[in-house]
Amino acid sequence: MSDHATAPVRVRFAPSPTGALHIGGVRTALYNYLLARQTGGTFILRIEDTDQNRFVPGAEEYIYEALDWCGIPPDEGVREGGPYGPYRQSERKHLYGAYAQQLLDSGHAYYAFDTAEELEEMRERLTKEGVPNPQYNYVTRMYMKNSLVLPETEVKERLERGDAYVIRLKIPRKEEIKFHDLIRGWVVFQSANLDDKVLMKSDGMPTYHLANVVDDYLMKITHVIRGEEWLPSAPLHYLLYKCLGWLDVMPKFAHLPLILKPDGNGKLSKRDGDKLGFAVFPLAFTDPETGSVTSGFRESGYLSEALINFLAFLGWNPGTQQELFSLEELVQAFSVERIGKSGVKFDIAKARWYNQQYLHQRASEDLVQFLEQDLVRHGISATQAQMVEAIEIVKEKVNFPTDFWAEAEVLFIAPRHFDQALMEQKWSAELEVVLASFKTALQGLETIDATTAQQLFGASAEGAGLKPGKVALGTRLALTGKGAGPDLWRLISFVGPAQVAKRIDHALEWAKARLPRVG
RNA sequence: GGCCCGUUCGUCUAGGGGUUAGGACGUAUCCCUUUCACGGAUAAAACACGGGUUCGAUUCCCGUACGGGCUACCA
Predict the structure, then answer these.
(1) What domains lie within chain A, and their CATH numbers?
(2) Protein A224 CA to nucleic acid B54 C1', in Å?
(3) Of A41, A39, A53, which is closest to residue A3 (Cα–Cα)?
(4) pLDDT tens digits, one per residue of A179-221
């Protein structure tokens, strides 16, 4: 495919460890991964933990577990190491100062000593004066406490005294900033609309912007694929590359369309999942502060291939009619050029469909674990062969492996309750005759296959002068207590002749005691 | 409010100056089925609006409307 990037790329996924990995983040990671695999490049995981206030213990482990489960692990990162480490920004703290200094020396940045209160005051004043967008910029910086306006001696004094300060980028007053985005084409900003963003915080940590640009540079990143929420800060990043003299190696940008709420408007959030009753995280996450658990796709019974396929198609498509793609096929077919521009609504129904597709095509042997859990929970022991057979019987009927038990329960446990209304409707003296006859037919049999079960039952019904179809539902009720369930003959085969006979007896007794008139 | 991005069936999308605007999910109906599903078939369903450009715009341009993002010493 000619529109594919051919040179090996170096791409990164750079989440901050502030909680569970959002499903949009997984998609971003996936696209990065696909491009890396396709070009024989490198997929890097960099942890952006420059804000120690928002650090959440366990979040980094969660990110790794999620990527592993999805089958898209990084090539370089805090776990796997690599030639450009460390891959945790907090551990790279010592690296950023030099670049801030370079910016200071070249006049592209300056010290600012303003307190939070002073900044607040400035914004309030400007708002009152009717300034639409109060910001620290080429006008307002002249009225603030910074090295651009303070006498040189005072700046030196403050620095030596250890006054708290930040380093801000001196945004040019009037400059058109134009850069190319792989998805959106040329994007133009006016520097006058930008503000003098903080590069170095007063705690000595860089902000996202500086760390991100410096690390992408040092790690030789070739393509930055990230969410559209970063588009407004892209001109700032462009300026940083420019002021640092790195324009010739600036990565190509691709800003992904956002994943939106399924109903109303806005970005998909954790709350939407809670509200609409589906997962928005790959894995369940326990908030270490509150202890509250949020469910994940994995725990909801999604197969990772289904999630990946679903996610890949949220904003991208191959331009063909093919909908089902394995990870390997995605690697082959993916191209940044075919990523859409507009936000996409999150449609859980489509995810369910994908899950069903993958569930049905997966070998029953590989699904045993899902049934086993529930069997154990109910204290039922079953052989491997029995479990595989049970899954064979119920697999086509469910969307999630977590539904196996609900569907397979009647295979393992004799009914304790019968559907009263249906029984009253379907039970008859004729049925009792057929049941008794069928029971006799089963007598002495060790096992029975589905076909034989059907034949034997047919003979029993016809022996009573009835069409088998007329008493089939009643028989189902007798054997399972319910009006719907697995294929009757396969069920009989699975349960076995002896057990079926017992169930028939039980149903007969129940009918005697609980049904008004059996005439 | 300001800046930026976007707009084809309900949803994900294909397409692209002249098409019966294609597919998938979902929905409905039918078939298959001695249940429920699966599977198969059919149906309803879209180019936001207004101006240009053009012989001709859903497609190109400009506005408007609507939606979204950003607007922190958060990422």
Answers:
(1) 92-207 (3.90.800.10), 363-409 (1.10.8), 420-514 (1.10.10.350)
(2) 40
(3) A39
(4) 999 999 999 999 999 999 999 999 999 999 999 999 999 999 9
